[in-house]
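Hi Q.,

Before the meeting this afternoon, I wanted you to have the uridine-5'-diphosphate-xylopyranose prediction in hand. No need to reply - just skim if you have a minute. The sequence and ligand are here:
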Amino acid sequence: MNIGIIGVGYVGLVTGVGFAHFKNKVVCFDIDQNKINHLNNGDLPIYEEGLDEYLEKAIDSNLISFTNNLDDCISSSDIIFLCVGTPQDKAGAADLKYLIKAVDDIVEVAKKDLILVCKSTVPVGTCDKIEKRINLSNDDNRSKFKVVSNPEFLKEGTALKDFLEPDRVVLGIDDSDYESSKVFFDLYAEIVSDQSLILVMPRRDAELTKYAANAMLATKISFINEIAVISDKYDADIKNIQKGIGADPRIGYEFLNPGCGYGGSCFPKDVKALINKAKEKNIESYVLGAVDKRNELQKKYLADKVKSFFFNKENVTVSIWGLSFKPNTDDIRCASSLDVITELLDSGFKIKAYDPISNASVEEYFNDIGSDILSFEINKYDALKESHGLILLTEWDEFKSFDFSKADDLMLSKNIFDGRNFYDKDEFLSHDWKYSGIGR
Ligand code: UDX
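Predicted structure with the ligand bound:
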């Protein structure tokens, strides 16, 4: 099929490269000329496992191209996937200005009938709004549009795999729109192993499903984070509690790892947007409000532990391993590291930080801080030099191996603050380290 992608951010890129992998002809549009030039040369603006290799293959087979000419994208496509950002506005709602602008521009240049697919995360009722807007601006001489919702469930770090082997495909299609249903069943037939994984439902349901999925996952995380804080105060070990509750299949083990709060481009923004959407109907989101609040507190929790551990903060240097919001991504949006660093700097700590790929972006974020106060090191052991304690914030694989004798030689005192309960506590204790985790 001929597919157009509007917006080559994270979702657009993975979607475009993914569809090209299944032999669809994909043209991606973005207003950022610089980005387009790089992409046509196979240079990715983001780090995502496997994406570079799949992009190169798609370019070599002539199945994907990138343009900043909207007409080129629209005229060569039958299905257009809207993948533009829907950032958080000041009130916490999803800001639809980029999406609306994209729709208006598409309507303006389209010369044939098209299916417009909303892949961007949008509040319930947005597809209806888009349709109304198109109908208002449309006269009989213009192209006809069908509007479909097809939310993404891509996790950063495994996004390509999630696209190529989805656990489900949610399609919001109006009851009467059999034609679009057929097109989508054909499109996804290649991708899903079993047609029953394609869940067709009304558009509003699909839109709300996306928010409900992220809100549910965020709720699990905030729940376990709160239990971990209680566990800490009563000298219990959250690891045992996780085992004890996860064994119940109704609860399960997934997404029950306590930490320094959830980050990234989705959970924080989507939970707030859903709260906001409920408020529009005078619904007070007690559960989601608490999920959000716990997350804010959790981001400060480890920093508070570090602060209360060290008596004289002025002369204390701490090391931080891991800065991205989770492993296998360079994304630092809403990363806990930003909160932890801010808190510690405000209290007078000196920090040596290291992340396998996110050093530069965090350095840019704190660009007004001198390197004598906050430095970014080129390897994990350099970050331990003359440090009084190590803070683990992101559980990258490369942090698994821990050379105790090397660390002991480099550090001034042996303290670990394990923000992801990543390490074996007993092993650290047996090497005369003081260990402090989240809820253990
Ligand atoms: C999420 C959803 O998982 C995905 O389906 C959706 O499409 C986009 O949002 P992503 O933001 O990439 O994906 O990351 P995810 O793996 O879900 O983790 C989000 C945050 O939760 C990270 O900060 C992670 O460290 C944290 N987390 C996750 C926990 O603190 N504990 C857990 O048990 C799991």
